Protein 1
Amino acid sequence: MQLALPTLLAALAVGQNPRACYETTNFMVYADTAESAKRIGDAAENYRVQLAQLWLGRKMDDFEHPCRIDVTTAERPGGVTEITYGDRRVLFHRVNVQGSLDRVLKGPLPHELTHLLLAHHFGFRLPRWVDEGAAILSENEAQRAAHGKAFRHILDKRQQYPLREFFGIQEYPSDVGPIYAQGHSVCGFLVAAKGHQAFLRFVREGLERSWDEAVNDRYGYKDVEQLEKAWLDWAGRQSETLPAPTRMGGWHRTPLVLRLTPTAL
């Protein structure tokens, strides 16, 4: 993981200054003040319930071990989640979020907690487009709109990945922007078609069998290419409702960090 200098200095300062701690059933939050730690901890528990109902249609079991959340005050909001997998389950999890408290609550926190939910649901590492695209769907409307504008710019230049290639991307490329923007668009299209839970079943089937079979079984398209045509038609209509693209700002994106044990799948 690479951190910008201000973020690195903030991280070093965390280790030098006393930090308030607030514990809930599933989280242990460290922040600059007791009030901030409590607000983040209570919000994290609420998001955990809401996200589980939205994506899984049911309540999640409590974590075997609480997840630590470190909160850092910074000008630019952002976050990173660390996860270790083994034997098809999460062995270790940790979340770091930064920014003003209000912005963290509306963006980085639900984004990173979606990563966490998907990790515990699947028990193995997901393709980058699934993980990031799904997490963006949990953000506030303004941030989702920013990604929509970014993808409009990609479409205008015809720089989107072919879906068959896109589905196979496992690592972050040198330019992570398209993974976020196109991932958000593809996930948004599939969720809009059949819902969150159907989307997760599609992802599992695509990874365990083939994407062509999953596309046909779950969405009724002949293959990935036919799905791609429908998605591009939908994405084009979506982009027509957006203002002209502007430079995306306000969120420092740190790629999700995953540590895999030798037995991880």
Protein 2
Amino acid sequence: MTSRLLAAVAAATVLADASCAHTLRGANPEVGVSLPEDHAAHGDAQSEWWHFHGHVTDAQGRRYDWFLAFIKQHTDLDSVLWLPVRWFVDPFQVALYTLTDRSAGKFHVAEKHAYPDTWTADASGERMALRHGSWSAQRSDDGTMTLAARSRTTSLELALRPLKAPALLGKDGYLHVPPRSSHYYYSIPRMVADGTITVDGDVRAVSGLGWFKHEWGFLYADDVAGWVWFGVQLASGEELEIGLIFDEQSNLVDGSFAVVEERDGKVTPIRVRELEVKESGDTWRSPRTGTVYPIGWLLEIPGRGSLALEAAVAGQEMVVFPVNLWAGGLTVEGVFDGQPVTGECFAEVVGLDEPFGRNLLRSGRPTKWEMVKPKPVKKPPKKPPVKK
């Protein structure tokens, strides 16, 4: 996605000394995503993150939602209270892990920061090989992705195998949020997930579905104040991926997207301004931050159907200085392509408030170095009218 999650997670993006030269680039609209090479890390990206999530069941029928993300943020341009962050760390690396036990109604969350001990985290530029302490994600030559993470009371070890080809969002993976953000984005929206999770020392074999998405480029600027992202996996075999990006006046901005990833892997765009996304009215107030989050939505997909999303567990908040966000699993019911359907969803809700003195931390204007603008299309000269 775009703007503040990683900026907030990685400390907040503020323009550093304008005279500081840097090599960070936005995405090039003339160069698309190339796989499997682009599963690896990109050294010239301002921000990059690898996001894995899924929904699994154990032998007793207990349901779980899980999330694991590795984040890499270069700090060439960042400052906090006028001090360049690059004096202390570059890149800043973060990893996030959550496990929701639906049966017990419990949400477990853990995070790791490589600050200032940057040697504890690494992302290979040759292939997908991510490490943050004991947490890891690796891709083998056959496309299998193996994940491992552990907190004090829970852990997961999973293998993800693609059931569909990667879906490239935008133009061959290029996305632009005017006027400043340009980045690459692709996802593998349906993967078989098998392995084990551990809850309070009890190791449980699980299986289900996973989702992987990867984004990199120049992501952060003041123009974006928050977003809502939905990743819906329908039992009928389709996925719905929606990214709604908002400015500080809560207006939907260009660069927001919505697609249906069909059963055969084809990506069908949806006109995002024709899509209806309504909060159901169900909310949850965080006892920690006081933020009131929506936890239910109604989606009207033009020409395809309507879906109701309901949080499996209400309290799925992550507090990562200086931002708090809701990110977790939901159940799905509705009608799609004229047939009753059920499914699973993972959602992210970012930017509802300004906690923890975030007003002290601001995103600066990127310089000309960050944006790679499309070349203007030359129109052919008009032919003179033919005289009769």
